[in-house]
Design goal:
Mean pLDDT: 92
Low-confidence stretches: none
Helix content: over 70%
CATH topology of the domain at 20-31 and 65-150: Four Helix Bundle (Hemerythrin (Met), subunit A)
CATH superfamily of the domain at 20-31 and 65-150: Membrane associated eicosanoid/glutathione metabolism-like domain
CATH architecture of the domain at 20-31 and 65-150: Up-down Bundle
CATH class of the domain at 20-31 and 65-150: Mainly Alpha
Shape: elongated
Radius of gyration: 19 Å
Largest sheet: none
Order of helices and strands: HHHHH
Number of strands: 0
Length: 151
Amino acid sequence: MAQVVPDLVSLQNPVFRSYLFYCSILVIKMMGMAILTSVQRYKNKAFVNPEDVKSLKIKPKTDENVERVRRAHLNDLENIPIFFVSAFLYMMTSPTEYMAKTLFFAFTVARIVHSIVYAVVIIPQPARGLSFGIGFLITGYMALTTLLHVL
């Protein structure tokens, strides 16, 4: 009897379900960074646009705490979208469920840890570099695996 293989982009495919789950977590995480930036702005009264400070009757200014959160958010915006693409393409190589889920999970944890040690509970290097590197290597591994698969 032939085994039925689930469609790639189907909720019946456990790898695709995992992809959707971790991508959703990462989207919510990035949205949280936007909220954290706003919280830091109000907490430190650090607004850079004149229209934002007019009603508060303060001068525009920057603050290192706000800038740190913004840099962490920018780092997310530079790395998470390429993970979305790389992971989606990687799924098309029919990876094992275990490997795909492990990579998706590890990337997500690495990005959460990166934001925490960068912007919430500042921990000296190499904590931030390691969490960044793990995510970077996972994205690169999936892209390279996909590339080699199609050659």
